[in-house]
Prior knowledge:
2 copies of one chain form a homodimer. By secondary structure, chain A is α/β, with parallel strands linked by helices. Helices cover 56% and strands 9% of the residues of chain A. Chain A has helices at 6-15, 22-33, 35-40, 43-50, 54-63, 69-84, 88-98, 107-128, 131-143, 156-168, 183-187, 206-217, 255-271, 278-282, and strands spanning 147-150, 173-175, 195-200, 221-226, 239-242, 247-248, 251-252. Chain A has a 5-stranded parallel beta sheet with strand order 2-1-3-4-5, with helices on both faces. In chain A, strands 6-7 form a two-stranded antiparallel ribbon. In chain A, α10 packs parallel to α13. At the A-B interface, α1, α2, α3, α6 and α7 of A face α3, α6, α8, α9 and α10 of B. Chain A binds a DNA duplex through α2 and α5.
Amino acid sequence: MPPSSFDQLQKRLSDEYPLLSRRLKEVCDYVTQHPQSVALDTAAVVADKAGVHASTLVRFANYFEFSGFSGMQKLYKQHLLDALQGNYNDRIATLSKSTGQEGDITAMTLLAEFGSANQESLGTLKEQTDPTTLTQAVDLIERAAAIHIGGVRRAFPVTMYFAYTLAHLRRNCHAISGLGLMHEDQLANIRAGELLIAITFAPYADSTQAMIETAHNNGADILLISDDANCPGAARSTIVLPVADAEVRGFRSLTSSMCLAQALCIALGYRQPEARPLDDNRTQH
Amino acid sequence: MPPSSFDQLQKRLSDEYPLLSRRLKEVCDYVTQHPQSVALDTAAVVADKAGVHASTLVRFANYFEFSGFSGMQKLYKQHLLDALQGNYNDRIATLSKSTGQEGDITAMTLLAEFGSANQESLGTLKEQTDPTTLTQAVDLIERAAAIHIGGVRRAFPVTMYFAYTLAHLRRNCHAISGLGLMHEDQLANIRAGELLIAITFAPYADSTQAMIETAHNNGADILLISDDANCPGAARSTIVLPVADAEVRGFRSLTSSMCLAQALCIALGYRQPEARPLDDNRTQH
DNA sequence: GCTTGTTTGGAATATATATTCCACTGTAAA
DNA sequence: TTTACAGTGGAATATATATTCCAAACAAGC
Lengths: 285, 285
C-alpha cells in the first residue's frame, strides 16, 4: 500500500533514505527540497532538474509502492492545494482527535500559534519602525571604531547573532558574554568613537543598565534595542530602536528582534561592498 | 502575442469579459476564482469543474492567443511557484519600484524584505512540519535525564535560546558553548537516557557532526534540527526536524529555527504544569 | 418560419507524457 | 580475473491528455 498522505510519505522518505541507491538518494534529496517542483513540473522536467533519468524517477515512485510517478505526484499536488488554502489547520484538528483529547494543547497547535503571532509581530515591525532612525542606527554602526554588544539572558541569542554577523562583515566587535562574570571588565575600556549595542527587555536587567551607564560615562555611543522606547537607559542612548515581540501564552518571542538585527547588519553589509559577505555567509556552519 | 505574465492575463480577463460568449464567461469566472485549480488540474478536470466541455477550455485559451490550454496553464503554474516558494527577488523588485527607490538599497527596504521573507518562511514552517514528528520530539525532550545542546556559529543563537528556556523549565541542560575549545570534553560524558539537541545548517560544521557521532556512540538520543532532512548525521539521529529558513540577498535568517525551538520548549512547559514558567519567564531580562 | 452565422459538445486525432523493457556499466564476491 | 547482480540510461511502447474537426443546436435577422 502506497502512502496515502503527504505526511506519511515524508516520514518514509526520511526513514528509508539510507536504504536507497545513489541515484534514488539524489531523487530523494531533490523531492524533499523541491516539493513544489514535483507538484507542478512534468516527470521529464523533474528528472532533469534532479539530475537523473526519467525512468529513475519512476523507479523511485515504485519503491514507495506508487503505480508510477503520476501516482506520487497526486500527493504533492494535493499537499500544495492544502497548504495554499490554509488547510493545515485540519491537520491540527485531526491530531487532537487522534490523541483523544480535543481541547488539548499539542505541540503542533503551539507551533501554529507561535508562527502566526510571530508573523504578525513582523508585520508591526515593518510598519512601526521609523526609516530615519533605522538609517541613523546603521550610520552609527558604520562609524564605530569598535562595537560592543551587550544583551543578557533572554536577549543573549540576539547578542550572539550580532557578534556572528558583524564579525563576518569584518567589523571589530566584542560580545559581552559574561564569561567568568567579567562582563563589567569586558566593557570597562570602551571609549569615545566606539559603540555599545545594548539589547534589553522588561524588566531590564541591572547588568545591562550598568553597561549603558559605563558606555555613557566613557563618551561612547549607544544603540539601544528594547521593547519600550522609554525604558530606563533610553535617555542615555544615542539611538533607541523599539521592537514589539509577540507574546503567546505568557511566552515572549525573539523573532522581531532577530529580524531587526538582521536588517541592520545586512544594511551595513551593503554599505561596505568590499566586505559583502555573500559567499562568506553561504559557507557558514 | 499571448500575455507573457500572469498580471497581464488577469488584466485582459477583466477587460474583455463582456466580449465573451456565455460558456466562455463561465470559464472566465472559474479560472479567476480558482487559479490554483488551473495550475494543478488537467484540462479535462478543469473543464468538468467549470461545468464546460474540454474543447471550450481550449477555445478560451485560444481567444487569448495561447496555442492551447497547456500554454495558458504554464502561466498559472509559474505564478503559483512565485507566490509559494518565495521568489523573493521578483517581489523585491516590485517592492523597490513601488517605493520609488529602485537602485537604492536602504535599511528600511531591507527590513521590509526580511520581514516579508521571514513571514513567509514561518508560513511554510507551519505547513511543512509534521505534527507526529513534532510530538515525538517533545516526548524525547521530556524523557531525557539531561539535555545537551550543540549548535555552533550561525546556529549558536538557537543553542543559547534553548539553554535559556530549558533552564527556566527546570530541566537539566548544558549548552555546548565551545568555551576554551572544550566542546568535545563538554559532551564526552553524555550517556544513554540523555539527549543531544543538535542544530546544524549547510555546510554542516564538522564539530556538530562530531557531537552527533559521540552522542550516538554513547547510546544517547539525538534530536536534529537542520535545513535538510537528509543531511549528514540524520541517519544517526533519533528524530530529525527539518526547517526551511528564508534567504534574501544571500543572507539566511534564523526566524523559523527560533520559532520551532520556542514551540518545542513551550509544549514541554505545558506537559509539566508544576514547572509552568509563565511568571518565571515574565521576570526575564 | 427560414436562413445565416455563431456557439457548443462529442468523437477522432495528434501530441505529449509516463512507463516498460533491455542492454550496458559498475561493483562486490568468489 | 571471472562471475553475478544490482543499478542505470536510452529506446520503444503504452497511456493519458490535449487539440482539432465536424455535426448539431441555438440565436438573430430577414
